[in-house]
Amino acid sequence: MIPLRDTNPSRTVPFVNYVIIGLNVIAFLFEQSLGRNLDEFIFYFGVVPVRFLDQVASVELHVGTFLPFFSSMFLHGGWWHLIGNMLFLYVFGDNVEDKFGHVRYIFFYLLAGVAAAATQVFINSSSEIPMVGASGAIAGILGAYVFMFPKAKITTLIPFIVFYQVVQLPAFLFLGIWFLMQIFSGVMSLGIGADAGGVAWWAHIGGFAVGVFAFSFLQKRKHYDDVETY
Question: How much is the pTM?
């Protein structure tokens, strides 16, 4: 299922969301300019579970130990990886930013991304494969969105083998199916490596969980100008 748009207009300009999309695109274009140095770059700025846990165990902690948890969420492994993530971010991110406010949205996005990477490290601690991508942070946005706007309509492209169908689905159904797919894939990957197929399923699950539990704490407070306080 591919989201094309939602029917939930934002009341404010989601400039933080646009900036995040722009940073991801710029970072990917920079990756493409590296040529033969790309693998080394990804290994250093991506989250490598074994490397991180070895540094923690040996108490060799420095900026480079934790930097990948932030840098990795702006890097991608290919054009389709980037396009797919940015499409989800574009469709769902504006309303979550509108609900949280610009500053809280930045904090939330980074928190979800770090928590997603940490979940993958915990589940797949023996992996030597660098993890990159914004999908963990975006999963946090999806978790918040489904509770904020469960009845919002999502215009969805459903591809079949030789044709496709465009339908409108309520957000709780679209995102519920999406999350169940992550759970199923994550559980199935446990016996063969939690990043089976090149997808960090448990990062998606961890990010979504952060979105579900954090949205109520980060919403903008309503102001009541016509009430007395005492």
Answer: 0.88
Residue numbers of the domain that contains 99 = 2-218
Q: For residue 221, what is the DSSP state?
A: P
Work out the mean pLDDT of the chain and round it to a whole number. 88
b/e for 94-105, b at 16 or more Cβ within 10 A?
A: bbbbbbbbeebb
For residue 225, tell me if it sits in a domain.
no
Q: Which residue has the tokens 């300009």?
A: 13
CA dihedral 111, 87, 47, 199 (to 10 degrees): 120
Q: Sorting pLDDT into bands at 50, 70 and 90, what band is 218?
A: low
In terms of Cα–Cα distance, which of 103, 125, 92, 124 is closest to 211? Answer: 92
Q: Is residue 229 included in any domain, yes or no?
A: no
Provide the angle, in degrees to the nearest 10, between the axes of the packed helices 79-100 and 102-123: 130
Domain count along the chain: 1
Give domain status of residue 223, yes or no. Answer: no
Residue 168: name the closest of 177, 155, 178, 159 by CA: 155
For the domain that residue 35 is a member of, what is the CATH number? 1.20.1540.10
In a domain, 227, yes or no: no
